[in-house]
Design a protein that fits this description.
416 residues, alpha/beta, 14 helices, globular
Length: 416
């Protein structure tokens, strides 16, 4: 249908959207950012459902099944509902060369249009300004932490990337930014269009101890909150952005303190510092860029002592592999590099070469006890790690959504 997998721009989707008569009912949140988007969407969805609202949540990418991308009240859409909407888009496109992401985005948005929703939570796929989801005018837009990723499409500086992501903001509407050091380009764009900019540290903040935490916003405080069920030190930053967004629209979507507590307590998001039951400990994390790897490293440090840490490591070749490895090289004893499929997937051998280039030299000096091996897939890599690890050791599966997805799909098949 289209000669390129990614072709940023809104002209094609606007044209087909107009033919579909696309319009979302209820209150719409759009979430952009380099990292933290999925967690933010999941927490928004969970809190709003606990408050009794009917919520549609669109996220990407999926891990095991495409249906995960379109959830209505927490339940993935069934095949029949998705097929009906895909057929509607096909009938309306009249030969327009939509990309795969554009085509499926329109189908899911149309599904939400016809699902009697109170709230739509929409995650930006890539960037913001030219992403298909930005077709929708958000009632409240959130930009999470900004770092360098997808540099070929968005630019190779935080300023360029911040400019792209700031375009999810709308004039006169709440514009939340949870990045503690937002790029000047984001601030300037928000001011230029007259967005109602909420900045972390100025308009909202959080404080906490080991037992509980509190949120403070422009005119609302929420005290004695339990920590979100999602693991990781960075989740309070995401959670405070969620509460700021809810405060900004509280006249339209009132949410009780009990709903906030229940929503944070029950939120789930596979693949984000997900610790599997059993021993040795197995951590799944989709960290695929240096910023996310830094958070993963901090979260691993907070887990306590493990005699040995094994990493099942698979990344895409167009990611910043060297900077990602730099955050974790001192925390991993045994690297099991794995092949990833597709034209963007890096081979296990190429990853092993990057580890050598980073100065990890098994059998030499400080690395005398370290090892680097290669496997054909993430699931095979996890099998190798389990065979080598002792009961008190730790296994970390990370580097890409594809890496975690292969492990999760294998577990799903075993469970069924």
């Amino acid at each position: 249908m289209h000669t390129r997998v990614i072709d940023l721009g809104l002209e094609r989707v606007r044209e087909v959207s107009a033919r579909l008569g696309l319009s979302l009912p209820g209150v719409t949140f759009v979430v952009a950012g380099t990292n933290g988007k999925g967690s933010t969407c999941a927490m928004l969805e969970s809190v709003l459902m606990a408050a009794g609202y009917r919520v549609g949540c669109y996220t990407s990418p999926h891990l095991v099944r495409f249906n995960e991308r379109a959830r209505i009240n927490g339940v993935p859409a069934d095949d029949g509902a998705l097929v009906e909407q895909l057929q509607a888009v096909e009938a309306a496109r009249l030969g327009a060369p939509l990309t795969w992401f554009e085509f499926t985005t329109l189908a899911i948005l149309r599904l939400f249009q016809h699902s009697a929703l109170d709230v739509n939570v929409l995650e930006i796929g890539l960037g913001g300004r030219l992403d298909a989801v930005n077709l929708i005018d958000a009632d409240c837009a959130i930009v999470t932490c900004i770092d360098i990723d997808h540099a070929d499409y968005l630019g190779d500086t935080r300023e360029l990337i911040g400019f792209e992501k700031a375009h999810v903001y709308r004039s006169g509407r709440p514009a939340i930014c949870t990045d503690p050091m937002p790029p000047a380009s984001l601030l300037a764009h928000a001011q230029t269009i007259g967005a109602d900019l909420w900045l972390f540290g100025r308009d909202f903040n959080y404080s906490g101890d080991r037992q509980q935490w509190s949120y403070g916003g422009r005119g609302q405080r929420r005290n004695s909150l339990a920590y979100p069920a999602l693991r990781g030190a960075n989740q309070l930053l995401n959670a405070s952005g969620v509460l700021a967004a809810l405060e900004s629209v509280r006249d339209r979507l009132p949410v009780s303190a009990q709903a906030v507590r229940q929503g944070f307590a029950t939120v789930e998001l596979p693949g984000r510092f997900q610790v599997l039951a059993g021993r040795p400990a197995v951590v799944l994390d989709v960290a695929h860029n240096p910023h996310a790897a830094a958070h993963l490293a901090a979260n691993l440090d907070n887990m306590g002592f493990f005699p040995q840490t094994f990493a099942v490591f698979g990344m895409l070749a167009d990611k910043d592999i060297d900077a990602t490895v730099a955050h974790l090289r001192k925390r991993v004893d045994h690297w099991i590099c794995v092949d990833l499929p597709g034209p963007r997937g890096s081979s296990a051998q190429a990853l092993a070469e990057r580890l050598h280039a980073a100065g990890i030299r098994p059998g030499q000096g400080d690395d005398a006890q370290r090892s680097i091996t290669c496997c054909a897939s993430p699931r095979e890599g996890l099998q190798r790690a389990r065979a080598l690890a002792e009961e008190n050791d730790r296994i970390v599966v990370f580097g890409s959504f594809l890496t975690v997805a292969d492990v999760l799909s294998d577990r799903s098949g075993q469970t069924s």
